[in-house]
Amino acid sequence: MLKDKESFKKAYLEKFLEMHGKDLEEGTNLDKYKALAGLIRDLISPFHVITNKSYQDGNKKQVYYFSIEFLIGKLLRTYLINLGIKELVVDGLSDLNIDFFDLEKAEPDAGLGNGGLGRLAACFLDSMASLGIPGHGNGIRYKYGLFEQKIVDGYQVELPDNWLKNGYDWEFRKPDKSVVVKFKGKVSVKTINGKTYFVHEDFEPVLAVPYDIPIVGFDNTNINTLRLWSAESVKQEFDLPSFNRGEYLKAVEYKYSVEAISQILYPDDSSNEGKLLRLKQQYFFVSAGLQSIVRRYKKYNNSFKDFPEKIAIHINDTHPALCIPELMRILIDEEGLGWDEAWNITINTCSFTNHTILPEALEKWPVDLFKSLLPRIYMIIEEINERFTRSLWGKYPGDWDKISRMAIISYDYIHMTHLAIVGSYSVNGVAKIHTKILKTEVMKDFYETYPYKFNNKTNGITHRRFLLKANPELATLITESIGPGWIKQPKVLLNLLNFRDDAVFREKITKVKQYNKSVLADYIDKKYQIFIDTSSIFDIQVKRIHGYKRQLLNVLHIIDLHNRLKENPNLDIHPRTFIFGGKAAPGYYFAKCIIKLINTLAQKVNKDPTVNEKIKVVFLENFNVSLAEMIYPAADVSEQISTASKEASGTGNMKFMMNGAITIGTLDGANIEIRNEIGDENMFIFGLTADQVLDYYQDGRYNAWDEYNNDPRIKKILEQLNNSLFHEEAGEFRSIYEALLYDNDEFFVLKDFSFYVDAQSRLDEKYRDKKRWAKMAITNIAHSGKFSSDRTIREYTKDIWKIKPILKSD
After folding, report:
1. What pLDDT digit, counting tens, does each position of 355-365 carry?
2. Is the N end or the C end of the chain the one with fewer CB atoms within 10 Å?
3. 464 is annotated as an active-site residue
4. pTM of the model
């Protein structure tokens, strides 16, 4: 470890010369960044090796967290904070006339995720390393991520996220650990000496090459691993004969078809080709990861009887559900175990987290497509389904409706959620209300059959990234006030409650917020040439654009404000800046219309001198972790306004809360548990409850036209959408108008509109009482420790994985 600033400067200059062979003054910002990254890699690597060796020598039980996404963000500053050398490095670079924060801009945001699912996985990795839990991530090394979002004339345009163009300094390629993943072909059944063998023949091989990223724990030498798999051709040689025959495409098509597996996250699955690619991706990283895990296990163990005592496989949503049949395949086909023994190992090794109740997100695959791509895996799933439905017949004789609802294979589809539940020993939701809905609605049949499997683990976020790293001014103030213990034990943040009545502390909290608002305002001014009044309320909604997340409800409120201001320019409201950010899936037309509507509204409002001193609208393009770290500290208001029952948990609500923003939201997801901690008086709750929403869905009594006819504000807004007031081309937002009225407002935007407007009015009034607002902010920050991912991971390790930390808790 670096001892002092002088030793750092010496080591850094030596590393720069070694890597670039030129004088420091001749180096670019990228050169200087890479030298620093190289130096930190050198510091981390010995501890990474030691950690892995300690796990192996002690034959510790380890958890492997399988996730299609890991939204890890930038790692440089996180590494420096966790290693305890950030100030030393910043000061040392300053002596060399290098601005660390300029240098940091050269690091790319890793294109490994999209939203809450991937960020949760990254938070869990941070907490596991920091708590000394032997736990690792397993995913895909996407070459182009999801996409880079550009806003052109108000429309979302998707460009490749070329985050690897300058290489990725934190990864270690491990070609010697590569495995082969097999697709297509046929399966022959052979009987030798009375034993049945399944042989996969004529398959298409794909080489899975691992890239390991170290995950550094806070203030310890524990370093876990995020292993990402890249798809490469088994045939590394160029097809020269085809090229010489003039068959240029054939010479490269195999290579490109293979590499497509790890090119982008969530390829458009509106076509069969897209569906096939998604399924390939899921099996690819599952098979590669499990082959690697089994290989390592065999190195230190002589039999598989203790496999569940040494290995925990966690399935993060349904994308890795193929872990179950793939582990069965490995145990039966490659290790020679019988079905019963293999199944007993599998169901005691795998655990599953469900993240959604949305029907379109509960994955299912057409049997024909699945069977042709993964013939042996299909055979195993078919057998699992046969045995499972037979057991159901014994339990529910004659109840064919129930059995068909629960079957893994039914009506020519394979239901991945059913597979995950049947093949796991634990099934958890991610907020209390979400878990309740799973038990009583979405997975009611399974809960009645396996009540012992179901449990709740409310999501959490890493406070070390979203407070200590993202908001250093607030973190410093907290440490000065209650000491540094909160960094390791976030529940210590509760001690901030003692300062709610301290006028000096409230003023300091307010100044920190004002500083962070000025940082975001400067960014907006420089990037978009939009001047933002930092004394205005920063009202922020940043998340994936989706109907149920109801950015549309937010927009309708803004249009209503605009209308009221046009009617009465002297309307008494506190100035408000509405800030949006988030990506729409490329094939999700409705969500892309919402983005266009936000930007069209922004153009109209921001250029109108009769309203733009009271309201402004900004859409921040290409929302990612780095941008989020600037946004959360600057927010006054956190918009968590999903349709009740639809948001499994949410983690943005926790990040905003931790940075002192006040939530306006529905009783959905973790909002309910936040309310239970801070009380109704410290947030703004409105709208239908989950039970009311579910009742409306069930009895069909809701009629959107009633809201349209009974509320003149709604009628006016929708007619504005339907004519040319907010856009040049009449009819551009006709699809939104029709979704709200002719499709009966699936997500109850109109039903909740009046309640939302009322809540916004209460918010406006409360904000003017600066003393009260500061107390509310302090209360939110103080209770946010409850929502640290450290707490969540402790619950997983104790209740699900049964793993003990190798480090003692402070």
Report:
1. 988 877 789 99
2. C
3. no
4. 0.96
